[in-house]
Amino acid sequence: MIFRTPKQTGEWVNRDKKINFTFEGEAFSAFEGDTISSALWAAGQKVLGRSFKYHRARGVLSFANHDVNVLVTDGVDTNMRGDVVTVKEGMALFAVNTKGGVKKDKNSYIDSISPLLPVGFYYKAFHTPRRLFPLWENVIRNAAGLGVVNFNYPRILKRKTHSHCDVLVVGAGPTGLTAALTAAEAGLEVTIVDENRQLGGSLGYNRAADSKSVTQLDGLLSKVASLPNIKVIASAYAAGYYPDHLIPIVGESGINKVRAKAVIVASGAFEQPPVFRYNDLPGVMLGSAAQRLIYRYAVKPFNNGVVVTANDYGYRVALDLLQAGTKIAALVDMRSAGNANSAAELVKRGIKVYAGHCVYEALASSDKLGVRGAVICAYDDKQNVALTDNKFTLECDGISMSAGWAPAGALLYQAGTGMQFDYGVEQFVPSRLPNGMFAAGKVNGIFELEQRVRDGVRAAHDAIRHLGLQAPQNQAEKHVGASPSHPYPMVPHPKGKNFVDFDEDIQIKDFVNAAKEGFDNIELMKRFTTVGMGPSQGKHSNMNAIRILAKIRGLPVEKIGTTTSRPFFHPTPIGHLGGRGFHSHRLTSLHDWHQANGAVFTDIGAWKRAAYYPAAGQSKEDAIQTEALAVRKTAGIIDGSSFGKIEIHGPDAALFLERFFTGEYTDQKVGSCRYVMLLDDSGVIADDGIASRLADDLFYLSIGTSNAAAVYREMQRSQQIWQLNLGLVNVTGAFGAINIAGPAAREILSTLTDFDLSFESFPMSSVRESQVAGVEARMIRVAFVADNGYELHAPMAQIPHIWNALMQAGKKHDLRPFGSDTQRLLRLEMGHPMPGIDTDGLTNPFEIGAEWAIKMNKPYFIGQRSLVILAKRPLRKQLVPFVLADNFKGEMPMDCNLVVDGRNILGRVTSISYSKYIDRCIGFAYVSPDKKEVGSVFQIRTDSGSLVAATVVKSPFIKTLKGA
Amino acid sequence: MQQFDVKKIIETSPVVHAQLKESAKWEVINGMNTAVEFAGVAIEGARKKVLGVADISCLQRYGVKGPNATQWLLERGIAIPTTPNSWTTCEQKTLVLRLGSSEFLIEDQLGGSACSRLESDKARAASVYKVPRADAAFIVSGSEALNLFSEICSLDLRDKSLAAKDLIMTQVAGISATVIRQTLNGEPVYRVWCDGTYGPYMWEVLIEIATELGGGAVGLTQYQNS
User: Fold this and answer.
1) Chain B closest-CA separation from residue A647 CA (Å)
2) Exposed e or buried b for every residue in A604-613, given b needs 16+ CB within 10 A?
3) Which of A187, A299, A910, B189 has its CA 20 to 30 A from that of A416?
4) Per-residue DSSP letters for A603-634?
5) Phi and psi at residue A183, to the nearest 5°
């Protein structure tokens, strides 16, 4: 541990507990609490990873959860961030994206051919010939990238929970802590979240060698701990903003969705690097990264460093470095004026200060794995030009960089905050906050510690008043002093390698070239250069990219704008997003019977339905044909409990149906059933079903399974508008239904009811209420799957009793169950198209020949106006029943195969099946209107491309007993 | 024609599909086959302290809605919650839940008789519509109850937000459900109702999470004294 400092006040490591681990096969030791990077750095291992594209050696950059060139794998997980993931005993770690390890990465040759690989090179270089693109894609993907996905990654449940509070404070630095305390002291329930595992933010490490801030932090933390109405969530980040102040907080164990009444964003700012040649070498790091290394992990960033700064912050960093025992070769201030007071203090301690200078380039060590020096020269910070006439070299093994800040304003942007560029601080700050959102501290453009604390109080007071309590109205302050950010901390260099985006190896020249190619809008430039599209999502590059583009275009920064900030703010594992799998489903009361009798289930809407019941060794197709034949020759029984079932009570029930559906119902007789068809406002078929009139003021509606919930919702919505005298009762779950159908159905049913089932007493399309097997049931004569069909509707809990009684009674008729797949074949044989299967989101009733179901002379029904318009237009397609050739033995067309005429698409097959009963392949298809006549022949193109002739016929496909 | 005695029809709890894999003790309560015990009394008692989930679908219910439903119930001696989305008790053994402004769910606890009395009144009244009920119903109790709900319900169910007589209709584990907070035998519990066809799913979700949190299935007997 050659870089470990003496004990630091408030350090995060536990020196009493040593941890052993390996990195790329080499043994290392660490203290408990060390991150992977801090442990390696303390041991003198400075090459921690390789860059995404050029495979350049990289070390510590931010130490703030954004060191995306230091991604490691432990063999199970990948892309683990070395700067924040704590090291555990026995870990065997390897850097990702190397070929041969970080020190001897064989892909590092790519760096030497980088002039051949500017941004976007692959768009152009490998565009043609197209057949070779897969080859190049493979080469590129292997050479560039991140970790390898482990497809055997264990399924570890990450819970997604909800919580609530009055005030959510994002960020637990001095601003956030003060805001939280102020709100809590007013009696509010406060949640404060911070991505670090310990609270305090910069108060813990931005010390300028003065431990006063530690005392201040301890005071704040003890107050927080003493207030029970403050809930602290550490090691978790606020990942996004959603309406009504819903903020997902992502932590190791899952996502906590916090619903707050007010949100105070005190998320701080990301330190931004100055851009100079070789600013990416291991040993070149942000000033705040050096401070974190020192105070959190007691690790010296380097032994003899150069501090380059473009603001006052670098002077503080210099003092911290000295405190840690680091020699400072010089402090280089890019500002011509520098900071005389701070400089004097350093000079007193023997440090050379060069104002109006820059680091022209960092010099790489011979193995290119570290820093051996820095070339310093004068810098014109008005023209942003390096004046190299008198450049000189300072030997050093590290460079600390401070150039400014970019607000961590993602949540503010996502919430719809208006932002404006404040030249006093050279950053975007909130100008118009959404209701209930408040910003404080650095993200609000306030940088001095005392001001930040006051800003935290001010924001908390605003939040308290927003929540209806009394609190003073403090005036928002403006930043006092020199700008904390430099307007353009870029140092041009003819040889480039002055990196703007460390995620994607993007240099200044890449932006210039992108602009020359016409990608001079920030959104276009982002996509062409990929700036900000790496794992750190531009947290260290977007602001510099905006500044560079502004310079190129000669525009002020605010005219360039920012790219869109979308949730999630930080890469989040898929497992977190997935959480526990909630797959809600509905079961009928017969589910266990179906299961016990070998049913294969299918999902229809929210329901698990029995699709068919194969005998041992029987194929699906055979099972369906066997079940269908039973319905045709004897009798079959199906569980229809999933059908939508809705009661419409009240004097206006018939009027409601007339408005809601296309048909007429006011004159419908009690005891009769009528077809209903629902359209949407554009005249598209939404659903259909049967309306049974049980009384003058009571209709019982049965509709399709899939759309039932949506239809009921639409009925409720319509009733809200129409305000008719009626009540809607959704009995889908309360009532079950059984359909018994086939030649023997009546005889079987007659053994369980004393109701007269004769055709005269109980004709087709009628409804009766009577007892079946002792249970009060609604019996409906339907001919959906067969002429002789009876739907029996009864309380769901009593359906198994009726079912079992029917099965028992039907034994001598070989009554057998059939499933929903068989039902589809049976209704096809009957010639009934089904909404959602034979129609789609564009189909109107004219296209399926359902004019008979529409009563256009009614005053109103949903979709009527659109139908009036559609009726005047020529049909574009027509659903027709068709058969394939007798004894057809070719490749069977499938649902959705196209109907074609040469290269023209005329339509598609919507349903097709072989019917063993009539020994013919039958189906429905959309064809052009000129092919709709019986006898017309059209061609279906199969999956393999072959053409199959089909002939339009009349439906039904089987003989039926009309009106029986 | 075959003769059937409808009174002898044994119904099963809508949740039963999800309970078959448990070695539960079954009893017929209110004509419904119900799991009354999943483990020994001591084990269930311990579960209940942490997080107990009981299936109480067998309780009798009666639903009614319509503009005149309030008056109709009052005339039949049912106490009405004064505000929408709230609940009250009547006759000591009956819960009266006001679902919105003009819809009610009446639930008799064991020994209650209000539902059968209302059920026997077959006369149709103007603007009063019976709502057939086939709910799956659950009691959730224990120190981790809120932790469980935090995963399946986005609303704040803590005492400070869900007042003693508040009723909420919301999504629980992605499906529509009704939730109240109640004190049973001095113990705070949550009551949850959902459509019975979702019952097995809801049970599986509740038990999965409850088990992870140190609780589990609890038989109806644990609450029978209520």
Assistant:
1) 9
2) bbbbbbbbbb
3) A187
4) EETTEEEEEE-PPTT--HHHHHHHHHHHHHHS
5) -65, -40
Helix (H, G, I), strand (E, B) or coil at B212: helix
Distance CA B92, CA B64 (A): 20
Contact A685, A843 (CB under 8 A): yes
Of B151, B161, B196, the CB nearest to A159: B151
Residue A750: other Cβ atoms inside 10 A: 15
Residues in chain A: 964
Whether residue A582 and residue B173 make contact (CB cut-off 8 A), yes or no, is yes
Question: How is residue B1 written in tokens?
Answer: 């024609």
CA distance A493 to A321: 28
Q: Which residues of A touch B57 (CB under 8 A)?
A: none
Coarse DSSP helix, strand, coil percentages of chain A, rounded to the nearest 5 percent: 25, 30, 45
Q: What is the mean pLDDT of chain A?
A: 96
Cα-Cα-Cα-Cα torsion A56, A61, A67, A69, nearest 10 degrees, comes to 0
Where are the strands (E) in chain B, listed by range?
11-12, 25-29, 32-37, 52-55, 61-65, 86-90, 94-98, 103-108, 129-131, 135-141, 167-172, 175-184, 187-195, 216-217
Closest Cβ opposite residue A735 in set B11, B129, B132: B132
CB atoms within 10 A of CB B38: 24
Both tokens of A449, joined, read: 């510690």
Tokens read off for A223:
């107050």
Q: What is the pLDDT of residue A138?
A: 86
Interface of B with A in 54-113 (CB under 8 A): 65-66
B contacts of A753 (beta carbons < 8 Å): 1
Q: Which chain A residues have a beta carbon less than 8 Å from that of B173?
A: 582, 584
Q: Locate A198 and state its tokens.
A: 């310990």
Answer yes or no: do A582 and B152 touch at CB < 8 A: yes
Using CA coordinates, name the residue in chain A closest to B20: A592
Q: How confident is the model at residue B222 (pLDDT cuts 50, 70, 90)?
A: confident
Assess contact for A352 and A485: CB atoms under 8 A.
no
A313-323 vs A287-297: helix axis angle to the nearest 10?
30
> What distance in Å separates residue B194's CA from the closest CA in chain A?
10
> Closest approach of chain B CAs to the CA of A726, in angstroms?
7
* Chain B 20-39, residues with CB within 8 Å of chain A CB atoms: 20, 32
Gap between the Cα atoms of A581 and A602, Å rounded: 19
Strands (E), A297-407: 304-309, 327-333, 353-355, 357-364, 371-380, 385-395, 398-402, 405-407
> Which residue is it, tokens 């959104």?
A523
Prior bond of A568 cis (ω within 30°):
yes
Answer whether A161 sits within 8 Å of B198, measured CB to CB: no
Q: What is the pTM of this model?
A: 0.92
Q: Are A489 and A285 in contact (CB under 8 A)?
A: no
User: What percent of chain A stands above pLDDT 90?
Assistant: 93
What are φ and ψ of residue A316, in 5° steps? Answer: -65, -40
DSSP A162: E
Residue B177 sits at φ, ψ, to 5 deg, of -150, 160
How far A460 CA sits from the closest chain B CA (Å)? 22
8 Å CB contact of A259 and B3: no
| ipTM for this prediction | 0.97
The answer to whether residue A95 scores a pLDDT higher than 90 is yes
- In the chain, the amino acid numbered A763 is P
Residue among B6, B200, B208 minimizing CB distance to A587: B200
Number of Cβ within a 10 Å radius of residue A518: 10
Contact B201 A586 (CB under 8 A): yes
Taking only the tens place, the pLDDT of each residue in A494-519 is 999 999 999 999 999 999 999 999 99
CA gap A606, A583 in Å, rounded:
9
What's the start-to-end Cα distance of chain A, in Å? 94
| Chain B, window 126-145: residues with a beta carbon less than 8 angstroms from a chain A beta carbon | 127, 129-134
